[in-house]
Amino acid sequence: MSIVKFENLFRRDGFLQAFSLTLYCLLVGLIFWKGDLWIGNASYLGPVLVLILFVVSALVCALLVFYRPYNIFLDGNKKEAVNLVLSTAVWLMIIFLIAFLSTAVIW
Predict the structure, then answer these.
(1) Fewest beta carbons less than 10 Å away: which of 40, 43, 58, 82?
(2) In this structure, what DSSP letter does residue 3 have?
(3) pLDDT at position 47
(4) Mind listing the pLDDT tens digit for each residue in 49-95?
(5) Alpha-carbon distance 68 to 49, whole Å?
(6) Contact at 8 Å (CB) between 90 and 9?
(7) For residue 42, what pLDDT is reported?
(8) Structural domain tally of the chain?
(9) Residue 1 domain flag
(10) Rounded to 5°, angle at Cα 9 from 7 and 12
(11) Is the distance from CB of 28 to CB of 57 less than 8 angstroms?
């Protein structure tokens, strides 16, 4: 198996997948931040909703990251599918580092 080329790690579709995953995480963070105002003080329903959100989040994140590479893999382009997953991971790490460093500068 050959080494992954540098330009394959910075693909546009990998960026779009990582960016959409970041937007979804921002939405979930907003739900955690403002959930008490929207739902109120639900004694039993609160933990149940958090568990449902956790399961749905795992499903959505898996679909955002792996659905397109899965289809590419089934079409027989195994190397392209792996490159897309790696590209998404690299872009997600870059987005994380930018967000982390920007909050470190602000605080």
Answers:
(1) 43
(2) P
(3) 82
(4) 889 999 999 999 999 999 999 999 999 999 999 999 999 999 999 99
(5) 29
(6) yes
(7) 67
(8) 1
(9) no
(10) 85
(11) yes
Q: Is 40 left (phi over 0), alpha (psi -120 to 50) or beta?
A: left
Total number of residues shown for the chain: 107
Rounded to 5°, angle at Cα 54 from 72 and 82: 20
Q: Is residue 82 a part of any domain in this protein?
A: yes
CA distance 52 to 75: 33
Q: Which tens digits make up the pLDDT trace of 3-34?
A: 556 666 677 899 999 999 999 999 999 988 88
The whole-number pLDDT of residue 63 equals: 95
Environment class of 80 (CB within 10 Å of its CB; exposed 0-12, middle 13-18, buried 19+): middle
Q: Residue 34 belongs to what domain range?
A: 6-106
